[in-house]
Design a protein that fits this description.
Layout (H helix, E strand, L loop, with lengths): L7 E8 L4 E6 L2 H9 L5 H5 L2 E10 L2 H13 L2 H9 L3 H12 L10 E3 L2 H11 L2
Antiparallel strand pairs: 1-2, 1-3, 3-4
Length: 127
Amino acid sequence: MKENNNTWYVYIILCEDNCYYTGITNDLINRFTKHKNGKGANYTRSHKPLKFLSAWEVDSVNTALSIERYIKSVNKKIKVLFLENNRLLKQYYIKHIKNKGKRDYNNISVRSVSKKKLNSINILLNN
């Protein structure tokens, strides 16, 4: 799933205690494998990851980091909205950065990874 060095993903994983973990990567499969093997984030060492719930492609690591921080700052109800309608993430995120007075939001690209592609990845990872 590593497409090129310019493609970064922001993702939400479901963990076994029904909590969510949000992170970034430029290789979804490798990153999930690290989480699953206890070599990813500290959080996923104690909250076993089960599957990807959603992922979004972005154009830069800086955008990915900023969106990751944003998702981690919102409550679970808002995260569920993003999971139910992937397109809402970009809308809410742009509103968030506008409110912070940032002006360079017109060129932000946030593209949802299709449910079909995520299902294929999840099947691959759980075999």
